[in-house]
Amino acid sequence: LLAMLSPSTAVALPEYSTAEAGNPFVDGWYADPDIAIYDGKYWVFPTASKPYAEQTHLDAFSSTDLIHWTKHSNVLTTADITWAKYAVWAPAPVERDGKYYLYFAANDIQNNSQLGGIGVAVADRPEGPYKDALGKPLISQFHNGAQPIDQDVFIDDDGQAYMYYGGWHHNNVVKLNPDMTSLGTFDDGSTYKEITPENYVEGSYMFKRNGKYYLMWSEGGWTGPDYSVSYAMSDSPTGPFQKIDKVLAQDPAVAKGSGHNSVVNVPGTDTWYIFYHRRPLSETDGNHRQLAYDRMYFNPDGTIRRIAMQVK
Ligand code: FUB
Asked: What's in the keyword line of the UniProt record (predicted)?
């Protein structure tokens, strides 16, 4: 299988996106977009890209056509989280049994002594208001070297939910119990399974297509021009994951710092889009990040073609 998936089989020929919204597709500085489909609508939940002390809220954007977007301000604020003060990052939305869950990281425990980590909020509607479900983080320590940030939640076809997460060059997967607010264990009794692929930095994301599991992640420094997205494929949601290719990177004619992605499949089609953030070429402030999306195409063997960023 690995021979089949070698980088040489990934066609490097860029294809121009057919996205019509134009990039950035919404106004404002935002980053780390994670997309979900709720009740026939696309919902994007991003980080508010501003200094950590001002990252006290999350906004969301909804659309029926990926072209016209409605802003929903303050779907989650730190006023509704007892333990989080600021640095609310990288929301991950998922629905289960009519409840809408929003996983988030807060307080940047890498650089602060306050309690921090990955929390979970829940709402009855996609637009919230989301309320802290636990009154404390779900994960508040480093495990296997992974900073508890940049979570993504994936529910497999058998109903098992997994959370992929980790900053600081380490990537873990954990099982979520059906309540979506507590951690399960793997068959060997462990809770945190390290799956770090080559060059991993942060921003892991999982999706499934034709029975294959795709792990995507970001490489490079988040404020640098070379921030980029790579991926691996596996027959199992827990890996092993071996890097196949870098599929999204800066383009000196378009934008720099393109990374921290999510993926959506248009229902009933084999049309896929990658959502990500990027920085305008003229911007030097690391937080000046904008939301973009482009078509993502697959080769016949399931590998992902390199993505051409849409100019506008
Ligand atoms: O937006 C805050 C942080 O920057 C995210 O957690 C990282 O993935 C990077 O995008």
From this structure: Carbohydrate metabolism, Glycosidase, Hydrolase, Polysaccharide degradation, Signal, Xylan degradation
Please state the atom number of ligand 1 nearest to the C-alpha of residue 277.
Answer: 10
How confident is the model over 165-197, as pLDDT tens digits?
Answer: 999 999 999 999 999 999 999 999 999 999 999
d(CA 270, CA 249): 23
Catalytic-residue membership of 202: yes
How many angstroms from the chain centroid is the CA of residue 142? Answer: 19
Q: Is the dihedral of CA 139, 140, 145, 147 positive or negative?
A: positive
| 222 Cα: distance to centroid of ligand 1 (angstroms) | 7
Predicted confidence (pLDDT) per residue in 101-160, tens digit: 999 999 988 877 788 999 999 999 999 999 999 999 999 999 999 999 999 999 999 999
Q: How far apart are the CA of 189 and the centre of ligand 1, in A?
A: 31
ipTM of the complex: 0.97
**Is 95 an active-site residue?**
no
Entry field: residues in the chain: 312
Q: Please indicate, yes or no, whether the overall pTM of this predicted structure exceeds 0.90.
A: yes
Catalytic residue chosen out of the listed positions 202, 219, 245, 294: 202
